[in-house]
Specification:
Mean pLDDT: 93
Distance between the termini: 94 Å
Order of helices and strands: HHHHHHHHHHHHHHHHHH
Number of domains: 2
CATH class of the largest domain: Mainly Alpha
Radius of gyration: 27 Å
Largest sheet: none
Number of helices: 18
Structural class: mainly alpha
Number of strands: 0
């Protein structure tokens, strides 16, 4: 072997060794992975967590590296890969009940996100069977099951499961409120509007519940009142949400859109446009709510027979990046109708 070939062989060996032992310790690998994950570089982070797992010695280290890998795949919406890792995390011997519950909960969620609903229910029930499960973890599992039944339109089963949350000893107010909200949405979809109103009001009346649950419950009440054609009451409740400094911004933008809709139905077009413009001007409004507000402005201009302005609004929405397919289709249909009216007016 020549001197040159020996040097080349040595370099190749060193490169291979450096790749085989990319990190000198578990901590080094894990810390690097955390940095990647914090930067939302999930694919790179997952690889580093895999390296950390190879260097793990304790049960906690094995669990943490597997669980964090699973979280990276979950954030990349690769639920099958995430599911496999969370199952491995659950199976690590010597982990704490809290660790086991966290991984088991993710197993259930990954099944749910993969539309494997019956297995998801089984996995949520497995959470409940773990020793020393906290009240909040019990509530989370029950809520997961209730959501699945709701998605399957098995409303009675969903309500029965939600009732179990309210019965959990030391359940946090937010979970109790969410349970009442779930029942309210179920009753609303069942067209049992009085029952829905009662459930939504209970959700907002839970002592020490977070402000966003109060504003969600009030919005839900306003929605049902609108369905019942109690426009005056619906608008009053919507204004309560819109004027609440503690309300979630998305709930405020939703409430304002409802007010604008009621104003339009009352043919108060200028007031409706002004309300919709306030939604568009909001920094933290939900993007879809802002598109709805723009659609409403277009509708108002149409009914005012200001077809040129209406057409401009509808065309603008069709090019909006934040508009959904449904919103773009609505804008396209109304643009076509508006163009016909504009052509008639110009003849």
């Amino acid at each position: 072997m020549t001197k040159t070939s020996m040097i080349a062989a040595t370099v190749s060996f060193l490169l291979a060794t450096s790749q085989l032992f990319a990190f000198g310790s578990y901590k080094e690998a894990f810390d690097q992975a955390r940095k990647q994950e914090s930067a939302r570089k999930y694919s790179e982070a997952a690889k580093d967590y895999a390296e950390a797992f190879k260097l793990a010695k304790t049960a906690s280290e094995k669990y943490d590296s597997l669980f964090r890998q699973g979280e990276c795949f979950r954030n990349n919406r690769k639920f099958e890969e995430a599911l496999d890792l969370f199952k491995k995390a659950v199976a690590v011997e010597g982990i704490t009940p809290a660790q086991k519950v966290s991984a088991q909960f993710r197993v259930a969620q990954c099944n749910e996100w993969n539309k494997k609903l019956e297995p998801a229910i089984v996995e949520y029930q497995a959470v409940l069977a773990i020793d020393k499960v906290s009240p909040d973890q019990i509530c989370s599992a029950y809520q997961g099951i209730a959501n699945i039944y709701r998605g399957q339109k098995q409303y009675d089963k969903s309500n029965e499961t939600a009732d179990k949350i309210a019965a959990v000893d030391k359940a946090s107010p937010n979970y109790v409120s969410r349970a009442h909200l779930t029942k309210g949405y179920n009753f609303r979809d069942m067209k049992k509007y009085d029952d829905a109103l009662a459930a939504f009001r209970k959700a907002g009346d839970v002592p020490k519940v977070a402000p966003q649950f109060v504003s969600e419950s009030r919005n839900a009440v306003a929605d049902v009142l609108l369905i019942q054609k109690k426009n005056e009451e619906s608008e009053k409740m919507s204004r309560t949400v819109a004027e609440d400094a503690k309300a979630h911004p998305h709930h405020i933008s939703s409430a304002l859109n409802r007010i604008a809709l009621i104003q339009r139905s009352d043919k108060k077009y200028d007031d409706s446009i002004k309300t919709s413009e306030s939604v568009i001007a909001m920094k933290d409004a939900h993007p879809s709510h802002q598109i709805d507000a723009r659609l409403n402005i277009g509708y108002c201009y149409f009914y005012k027979k200001d077809y040129a302005k209406a057409l401009a609004v509808f065309k603008e929405i069709q090019d909006a990046k934040t508009a959904s397919a449904g919103q773009k289709n609505a804008a396209k249909t109304w643009a076509a109708n508006t163009q016909k009216e504009l052509d008639k007016a110009q003849k």
